[in-house]
């Protein structure tokens, strides 16, 4: 039976989680800002479907009314712009 809580450890864990949550929120804001700069709605949709929703290429293509290869090419071109 474990009793008691190490308050100091609990506090430091909470602080770490808050910092990680804040970093994640910043990253999400950066991604949203980038998506706002993508002018082509098809490109924006491909990014969201693949990265945000994690869909497979066949599903991305089906939702975009395109082929897998066409979606992949557009996606990779967008990723190259980020580098």
Task: Give an account of the 3D structure.
The chain has 83 residues and is mostly helical. The mean pLDDT is 91. It has four helices and no strands. It has helices at 7-37, 41-52, 57-64, 68-82. The longest helix has 31 residues, at 7-37. Helix 2 packs antiparallel against helix 3 (57-64) and helix 3 packs across helix 4.
Strand and helix layout:
Blueprint: H1 7-37, H2 41-52, H3 57-64, H4 68-82
Helix pairs in contact: 2-3, 3-4
Strand runs, count? 0
Mean pLDDT: 91
Strand content: under 5%
Low-confidence stretches: none
Cα-atom radius of gyration: 20 Å
Helix content: over 70%
Kindly, what is the distance between the CA atoms of the first and last residues, rounded to a whole number of angstroms? 53 Å
Q: Count of helical segments?
A: 4
Structural class by helix and strand composition: mainly alpha
Q: What overall form do the CA principal axes indicate?
A: elongated
Brief sketch in words of this structure:
The protein is mostly helical. 80% of the residues lie in helices and 0% in strands. The longest helix is centred in the N-terminal third of the chain and has 31 residues, at 7-37.
């Amino acid at each position: 039976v474990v009793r008691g809580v190490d308050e100091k450890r609990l506090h430091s864990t909470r602080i770490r989680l808050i910092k990680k949550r804040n970093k994640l929120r910043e990253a999400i804001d950066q991604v949203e800002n980038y998506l706002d700069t993508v002018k082509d709605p098809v490109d924006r949709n491909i990014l969201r479907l693949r990265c945000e929703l994690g869909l497979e290429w066949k599903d991305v293509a089906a939702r975009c009314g395109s082929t897998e290869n066409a979606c992949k090419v557009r996606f990779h071109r967008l990723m190259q712009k980020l580098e």
